[in-house]
Amino acid sequence: MATIGKNMQKAIGEQVNAELYSAYLYLAMAGDFETKNLPGMASWMRVQWQEEIGHAMKFLHFVHERGGHVNLAAIEAPPAEWDSPLAAFEAAYGHEQKVTARIYDLVNLATKEKDLASLNFLQWYVNEQVEEEAQTDRIVKTLRLAAKAPGAMLMLDHHLGQRKSGS
Ligand code: FEO
């Protein structure tokens, strides 16, 4: 197996940073929900935070297995608060769409570099992004339905609080 190429290593290193930013963003949303007395949504966001750490670690492990190294860069600060649960989940959905575009860029780079190991590895992320986008989009749509009924918002908060790690 060939050592990972410099271009691929650099691009994956940048993706590690992007995944850690995602984690940081969802941790900030969890904090905002805690402050606004929505513990279920806060808990959902903490599960998401853990997932993002997992995504970053999986990339790091892959680079190391291929004999490479990632120089960790500074992580950008996320916003501190959002206007409403809908605004937060809309931001989460928009963020996941950007992450998907980044993963597709990595796939295109791996194709260009004829790096079949990276190409194969990245398929997991292509599939994961389908789920990441679908779940946030579903919550956005439910929040739009709940917008006119405060009771529905509390029920949704309770429901989202049931999410367990790995789901
Ligand atoms: Fe790591 Fe939410 O994608």
Explained architecture:
- The chain is elongated, with a radius of gyration of 17 Å.
- The protein has helices at 6-35, 39-65, 85-112, 116-146, 150-160.
- It has one domain (6-160): Ferritin, core subunit, four-helix bundle (Ferritin, Up-down Bundle).
- The model has no long low-confidence stretch (mean pLDDT 96).
- With 167 residues, the protein is mainly alpha-helical.
- The longest helix has 31 residues, at 116-146.
- The structure holds MU-OXO-diiron.
- The site of MU-OXO-diiron has 7 residues, from helix 1, helix 2 and helix 3.
Query: Distance between the terminal alpha carbons, to the nearest Å?
Result: 33 Å
Helicity level, as a percent range? Answer: over 70%
Given this structure, which CATH class is correct? Answer: Mainly Alpha
Determine the mean pLDDT. Answer: 96
Question: What's the CATH H-level homologous superfamily?
Answer: Ferritin, core subunit, four-helix bundle
Give the radius of gyration.
Answer: 17 Å
